[in-house]
Amino acid sequence: MITLADTTATEELGKIIGVAANPSNNLVLTGDLGAGKTTLTKGIALGLGIDQMIKSPTYTIIREYQQGRLPLYHMDVYRIESGADDLGLDDYFEGDGLSVIEWGQQLGDYMPEDYLELLLSKDDQDENLRRGELLANGERSERFKERILKAWETK
């Protein structure tokens, strides 16, 4: 379990994730509204060397940021009810960048085969406190998780 004291810590975890990412890594962000998914993604972008403003892709579904060490594919699939097969998401999941997928559970059968899930939860007592749990689904994601946790523990 990773404890995030505030938005600065959430962004710092994001930076670590960005530095640890390799091509074709997929990160699924799961958590309620306000859990810190977009804040985390801003940190990921910084870790990848992307200084462009990061906005939630709620209405566009996918935002691509190409100017970092790796491309960042930021997806928000909350509004997807069916037809995910028409989006060509596999091209992103197996591509040359890092795919960050908010509300990934909405994809059902269209989830990537190998992905790391980060469960973010808000604390009931402290509105600034978040907790994160990393769950690897595949060998590539297990290695991704290990790189993240090692960097987090040594920061």
SSE topology:
Layout: E1 2-4, H1 7-20, E2 26-30, H2 37-48, E3 62-65, E4 72-76, H3 89-93, E5 98-102, E6 115-122, E7 130-137, H4 139-154
Parallel strand pairs: 2-5, 2-6, 4-5
Antiparallel strand pairs: 1-7, 3-4, 6-7
Verbal overview:
- This protein has helices spanning 7-20, 37-48, 89-93, 139-154, and strands at 2-4, 26-30, 62-65, 72-76, 98-102, 115-122, 130-137.
- The two termini are 16 Å apart.
- Strands 1-7-6-2-5-4-3 form a seven-stranded mixed beta sheet.
- It has four helices and seven strands.
- α1 crosses α2 (37-48) and α1 crosses α4.
- The chain is an alpha/beta fold.
- It is globular, with a radius of gyration of 14 Å.
- It has a single domain (2-153), classed as 3-Layer(aba) Sandwich (Rossmann fold), CATH 3.40.50.300.
Order of helices and strands: EHEHEEHEEEH
Task: List the uncertain runs.
Answer: none
Count of discrete domains:
1
CATH classification, class level? Alpha Beta
Query: How much strand content do the residues show?
Result: 15-25%
Q: How many helical stretches? A: 4
Mean pLDDT: 89
Give a quick account of the main beta sheet: strands, pairing sense, barrel closure: 7 strands, mixed
State the CATH superfamily name.
P-loop containing nucleotide triphosphate hydrolases
Calculate Rg over CA atoms: 14 Å
Distance between the termini: 16 Å
CATH architecture field: 3-Layer(aba) Sandwich
Look up the CATH topology.
Rossmann fold
Give the helix proportion (percent range): 25-40%
Give the class from helix and strand content and strand pairing: alpha/beta
Keywords: ATP-binding, Cytoplasm, Magnesium, Metal-binding, Nucleotide-binding, tRNA processing
Subcellular location: Cytoplasm
InterPro entries: P-loop_NTPase, T6A_TsaE
Main location: cytoplasm
